[in-house]
Amino acid sequence: MKHILLLNGPNLNLLGTREPQIYGHTTLADIERHIAALGATFGIRVESFQGNGEGELVGRVHRAREEGAAAAIVNAGAYTHTSVALRDALAGTALPFVEVHISNVYKREAFRHHSYLSDIAIGVIAGLGVYGYEAALRFLVETEAV
């Protein structure tokens, strides 16, 4: 069975209670359950990982390659805008991924407008709320990226 990595960065463990006016009330556990169940309908195993540390995320990307992950859905949180290390891990492992943002980062602070990941992602989804995760999975399946 093919599998993909659902990778979430810092503070996304606070979804459901963190700034609900921006991120809504859905928890990360809710998202993980939904994406895993949807993946199963496509015959894909979805493995979820959330980390607040940059090194944790980099290490998980390395392990995904070793485990033969076909692709990833990545919401790197604040590391989207700051982490060359995470970019290098994704580029170095050649793991195809869709970058996801719950909020529309282009309607927010200027520092959120730049992503170190977008130019190496196969797609970017921003501003669709938590549906962005489902859209990313469907895209990966329908374009046969996995």
UniProtKB/TrEMBL annotation:
Gene3D superfamilies: Dehydroquinase, class II. GO terms for biological process: amino acid biosynthetic process; aromatic amino acid family biosynthetic process; chorismate biosynthetic process; quinate catabolic process. It catalyses: 3-dehydroquinate = 3-dehydroshikimate + H2O. Substrate binds at N75, H81, D88, I102, S103, R112. The record marks R18 as: Transition state stabilizer. Keywords: Amino-acid biosynthesis, Aromatic amino acid biosynthesis, Lyase. Its EC number is 4.2.1.10. InterPro entries: DHquinase_II, DHquinase_II_CS, DHquinase_II_sf. Pathway: Metabolic intermediate biosynthesis; chorismate biosynthesis; chorismate from D-erythrose 4-phosphate and phosphoenolpyruvate: step 3/7. The active site is at Y23 (proton acceptor), H101 (proton donor). One of its GO terms (molecular function) is 3-dehydroquinate dehydratase activity. Catalyzes a trans-dehydration via an enolate intermediate. NCBIfam families: aroQ, PRK05395.1-1, PRK05395.1-2, PRK05395.1-3, PRK05395.1-4. Belongs to the type-II 3-dehydroquinase family. Homododecamer. This is 3-dehydroquinate dehydratase. It comes from Neisseria bacilliformis ATCC BAA-1200. The gene is aroQ.
